[in-house]
Amino acid sequence: MNSDIRKTGKSGKIVLFICLLVIAGIQLFPLIWLVDFSLANPNELFTSGILVWPEKIQWGNYVKAFVDGNFLLYFKNSILINTLAVVFVLLISVMASFACIRMEWKLSGVVKTLLLMGMMIPIHATLLPNFVIYDKLGLTDTIWALLIPYIAFSLPQGVFLTSSFMSAIPKELEEAALLDGCGIYRIVFTMIMPLMKASLVTVAIMTYLNNWNEFMMASTYLSTKTWKTLPFAILEFTGQYSSNYAVQFAVMALTAAPALLIYIILNKYITKGVAAGAVKG
Amino acid sequence: MKKKLLSALLAFTMVLSMTACGAKESSTSDQASEDKVTIKVFSNLPDRTNGQGFVEQTLFDQYMDENPDVVIQVEALDDEAYKTKFKAYASGSNMPDLVNVWGQPSFLNEIIDANLLTELNAADYADYGFINGSLDGFSNDGKLYGLARNTDVMGFYYNKAIFEKNGWEVPQTYDELIALAGKIKDAGLIPCSMDGSDKWPLSIYVHDLMQKIDPDIKTQVQDSIANGDFLNPVYAQAAGLFVDAADAGLFQSGFETTDYGTAKNLFTNSQAAMFYMGSWEMSMATDENVPEDVRNNIGVFMMPTVAGGAGNVTDIAAWNGGGYAVTANSKVKEEAIKLLNFMFKPENWSKLCWENGICMSAQNYSEYLTGEETSAQLDFTDIVSGSTSVTGVTFNDLGTSEFKTLSEDLSQELAIKSVSVEEFIGKLEEAGK
Amino acid sequence: MKKLYSNKYIILSLIAPGLLTFVFAILVPICLSVYYGFTDFSGIGAANFIGLENYTTLFKDSGFWMSLRNSLFLAVGFILIQHPIAIVVAAILDKLQGKAEGFFRCVYFIPNVISVAIIAYLWKFIYNPNFGLFNKILQSLGFKGDVNWLGSGNAIWSVLLVLIWHGFGWGMLIYYTGIKNIDPVLYEAAAIDGATSAQTFMKITLPLMKTVIQMNVTMAIIAALKQMETVYLLTNGGPGNETQFLANFLYKEAFKSYKYGYGNSISVIFVIICLAATVILNKIFAEKDERRKRA
């Protein structure tokens, strides 16, 4: 591999490097722009410069965004709902995969295909009928109105990934355990799950990425603050502070921050997880 | 392996404790609601610290102070999101108790037909000072279903300081308005800021022109929609005049995708010399977020007269749009009506709105004049008291909600010339049928 | 032991949570959609059975065809613009090694972790014709800078640009992983044969990436069909229906025009199109594979 890079001339290398830097710039610049104006006075957006050097850094914008945007509450809800969704998706998909791959029954193939079909179903197609169902069952404006669809629409991917990883685990291991008198449940939860740690991380990350940013369902099914998630901080703020762009920018930057921080800290695992999940999927 | 098992167990208990916590929380709130009445309000005023939202919240706070056993829960979204969510609510069984409604057939008819609103006792409001006819839009078959919040007038806000500095005059005719647009553009400013992505301001602009061409047109519009007959040349002429304005660059570049907030901000940040919007925006003059040099220089004029048109500048686009209603399935109907009545006691909504320079209520507010009105307030007062005819509800809101979507889409397409005037008329006829 | 593996109760208890979630959250709603799709239900009041009327209207509705056309446009845009850049960048990154490799990989993926709500609002500001970033850049380069980015004719390109920008890191990462999985021995052999980097890329990297590319293409088409959030906040389908997509279209019809039954008929067609697209793509790729194997 190294031989190749040696062959490319020094000038060629520099050109390539500059290209990569330019793309990095394109990917990052809108975000830099966002942070810049979030610290400025709202009127400064209307000046002609591409970036501004704020006359006075307006930290107050962030204070407003933090307090009036219900940031803490929505953040807490987002964490709770997404974590629960991940836990459920992991448990349910491992159980279902085990049933379809290892257990011996006639319909295992059909059921697995059925579950996987969910991957092709557009989540928005269920928006209208689900509203009617949740309303009848009194689930609107409860945590379940978000949890159920979030789990359901991440499940197919979960089943797909766990089942493909599970088939790679040699069956002999379980059989030995069975001979020792272990029950199926113990095998699933104490043997298979730990063995699949890496792939479970992948499923968890994919589920998080899928659901963390979702807001169509949330805004249709929820009405009070109790369970609203982070994207609401932005959706509500644009109405509340329609005449103050700087505060709007601040709330956007603030809302982006947690996911960004987590990503930068766990960057290695996330890229690996996504890559593993995507290439398999 | 033991460690793994332990962590799995830990995760499991965490989940259990979380759900248990959730359950606990809801049960405590149930207990609280036993001795407290919770009134759920669904509002289209998301900004609770300025404008009408501020007045609404002030009144709610005051009511809760006076009635310690009442809790008012507000869910507020801006107009478009509000209307969408309202329809979602309407299809379900858990509507909020006090809701915002528009006294327009496109919004209200379907809702009244489905018996979603509680009938109010019209006699209760005899001494509330509602202006004659202001509750008509909220009534059906002689029954009253809601109270009007405001008298809405559509006009051009303009920045007096910019006009003065450049020696521009308030246009007296539509041709002058178009000529002025050219001058303002040459000065490097946006002539008139327009909210085109919400589309209804465009439709109102067209109707405003219809009123200037023929002040009696309003008697025909409803029939035209019902029969799908837009042969009357007034419609085509108004549509043509609207296209002329768009062609002349009266509106900012990209107005068809500019949302409400952005359109307003262009005006309040001195990027645009004018802003075509309703009287509820007079509160710009008292909004601390608006820069002082703009805030203190806001004037208003009406759509100028059209060459050959029968209408005068005093034939204005005005109606009673927004208001409140109590839902039929509310479990706290009595309490919600009490709250509604409290809000509209003349010394509450009407007075607060006027004193804070926010809007003109649908009630008689003359006794609350302070002598310290903003110039926008004074201009609007003069305009309303001097009006010779009003449009009433504009054409886009006179049909079904489907007609509303179609006609407003068409107004936008007309503005960006993806349909011609002939196609505009043709498609309106189709939509009406 | 065999008995344990075919114990009906254990099977049932293992599969039930997954199956119930699927039935309750996906299957039942879709059945309900099929039912409502045959009615003139407005969302409130009573529903009348009107047979296939919704579907005949739908096939005559220009908004529907526009949505499909836009999905196709997006998919082609992804495949012809986003993916080639992503593959090339991934190949270059693979050669970089060391800290720079990790840095760029990390930076490229950043837009992906940011909420669509933020992305859409942010780009609305970037595109604003009067004070947005793009026109300011154009102005500073000496152009007039009054491009109406979200206006008629430009809007769909602007939407495409945002989606390409947002999804670039994802596509890049997948290709990158694919390239990493290629056996380095092949490259070494090519180097010994004196192949240039461009030749190596065309002759070795691309052919070996075939399955990854196929998968990415499938995902691009599905993503283009399912597009909703960005468009909803950025243009809401406008101007006119120029940037309309199926999901946004059904939302608009159901909630804005009170045509709940009609909206549900769109849902049904939407599901059918997504399923059909997947099946067809799988068929196409499977056939190609077979033909190649035979040859």
TrEMBL record, chain A:
Residues 75-266 form the ABC transmembrane type-1 domain. Keywords: Cell membrane, Membrane, Transmembrane, Transmembrane helix, Transport. Signal peptide: none annotated. One of its GO terms (biological process) is transmembrane transport. The chain crosses the membrane at residues 12-35, 79-101, 113-131, 143-166, 187-209, 245-266. The keyword DNA damage does not apply. It is a multi-pass membrane protein. PROSITE patterns: ABC_TM1. Pfam families: BPD_transp_1. Coiled coil: none annotated. It is found in: Cell membrane. InterPro entries: MetI-like (IPR000515), MetI-like_sf (IPR035906). The keyword Membrane applies. GO terms for cellular component: plasma membrane. Belongs to the binding-protein-dependent transport system permease family. This is Raffinose/stachyose/melibiose transport system permease protein.
Automatic annotation (TrEMBL), chain B:
Pfam families: SBP_bac_1. Keywords: Signal, Transport. PROSITE patterns: PROKAR_LIPOPROTEIN. This is Raffinose/stachyose/melibiose transport system substrate-binding protein. Residues 1-22 form the signal peptide. Belongs to the bacterial solute-binding protein 1 family. SUPFAM superfamilies: Periplasmic binding protein-like II.
TrEMBL record, chain C:
GO terms for biological process: transmembrane transport. Gene3D superfamilies: MetI-like (1.10.3720.10). GO terms for cellular component: plasma membrane. It is found in: Cell membrane. Pfam families: BPD_transp_1. Keywords: Cell membrane, Membrane, Transmembrane, Transmembrane helix, Transport. PANTHER family: ABC TRANSPORTER PERMEASE PROTEIN, INNER MEMBRANE ABC TRANSPORTER PERMEASE PROTEIN YCJO. This is Raffinose/stachyose/melibiose transport system permease protein.
